Amino acid sequence: MLGEELYNIAVKVCALYGAFFNEVTRELGKWKALALHRRAHELMGVKTGKKMREQTGDIEYDLKTLAEILKKSNLSIAIDSQMVEGLGSPLLRNARYPMYDGYRMGGLDDDAAEALR
């Protein structure tokens, strides 16, 4: 099943990142490592947003359309999300989260794995 294979691949990639993050934390300290992680995610968020805009054009978004776009984006990295009713914004609930599972496999404790989400 492709979904399970993609999930396992994502977990293994995140395990490598988790192990790398552990080493960065040992060298630079927890707060510096988290700051670097945050900056990298901000950069990737901007790039992802630009890519999504290129793919969808200048369409008007309603909440359901936006949720579907976000679900598709999540699925591309093996996150299975379902939309639940939010208060005026799309709220996605993740059934499985390969990043967290991978971070734990890479040696991060619960607190560190949560901090990287």
Averaged pLDDT: 86
Summarize the helix and strand pattern as letters: HHHEEHH
Distance between the termini: 26 Å
Helical stretch tally? 5
Describe the structure.
The chain is built from 5 helices and 2 strands. The chain has one domain (2-115). The relative contact order is 0.20. Helix 1 runs antiparallel to helix 2 (30-56). It has 117 residues and is mostly helical. 69% of the residues lie in helices and 9% in strands. The protein has a two-stranded antiparallel sheet with strand order 1-2.
Quick take:
The chain is mostly helical.
What's the SSE blueprint?
Elements: H1 2-28, H2 30-56, H3 63-75, E1 80-84, E2 91-96, H4 98-105, H5 110-115
Antiparallel strand pairs: 1-2
Helix pairs in contact: 1-2, 1-4
